[in-house]
Amino acid sequence: MSTPSSPSGGGSKATAAEAARNSVSLKVGMIGDAQIGKTSLMVKYVEGTFDEDYIQTLGVNFMEKVVSIRNTDITFSIWDLGGQREFVNMLPLVSNDAVAILFMFDLTRKSTLNSVKEWYRQARGFNKTAIPFLVGTKFDMFVNLAEEDQEEITKQAKRFAKAMKASLIFCSTSHSINVQKIFKIVLSKAFDLKLTLPEITMTGEPLLIYQQW
Ligand SMILES: Nc1nc2c(ncn2[C@@H]2O[C@H](COP(=O)(O)OP(=O)(O)O)[C@@H](O)[C@H]2O)c(=O)[nH]1
Ligand SMILES: [Mg+2]
Known about the structure:
- This is Septum-promoting GTP-binding protein 1.
- A seven-stranded mixed β-sheet has the order 2-3-1-4-5-6-7, with helices on both faces.
- The chain has a single domain (22-209), classed as P-loop containing nucleotide triphosphate hydrolases (Rossmann fold), CATH 3.40.50.300.
- Helix content is 36%, strand content 23%.
- It has seven helices and seven strands, in the order H-E-H-E-E-H-E-H-E-H-H-E-H-E.
- Mean pLDDT is 90; it is low at 1-11.
- It is α/β, with parallel strands linked by helices.
């Protein structure tokens, strides 16, 4: 009996092409209070879907997404920590070895922005080199707030981001605002790539501030 054979060397060619590809892995941690939209953002970025039903994260969620630039496959591994204080002992799992940490808050709940201070202090204890991001969620609801409230939260978010030397991004997962861009900026910062995304700095707009403060 003869064994099936592939046309001259096809198999080995494919292997050579594969070997020419580089692959790297990028861990991104997501941290912040409960109910601010961390899990939603991760699922939206990885699977492209948004579900209004709230499922509380128990402990830690983890998802992967591969993006390719030229001949490099980049695997984002995204770690999302349950916001309840009892999960704080899992903070090292999310923070350790992360290349970037998204410190997240709900743009419609100021208390969640105040919490960022403590989240930042604790996460920095485990990881001093991760590239920090301050990410405000639910921008779709934020625009319905009174103008003074919008201004105050924006001002404080800018102040925090400056102090953290963090990029500042306002996003909406439900309305697909700035979701992809967060991870584009992570990528550009991690690999020192030039990015041509225009910044958005005006109050009332979905902020995108990622160059120098
Ligand atoms: N309007 C609006 N609701 C959102 C958005 N992102 C998340 N939510 C809702 O906020 C709630 C909490 O979301 P979840 O991702 O579970 O928050 P987590 O506890 O931080 O992981 C859910 O009911 C989501 O549907 C958003 O961009 N806009
Ligand atoms: Mg969650």
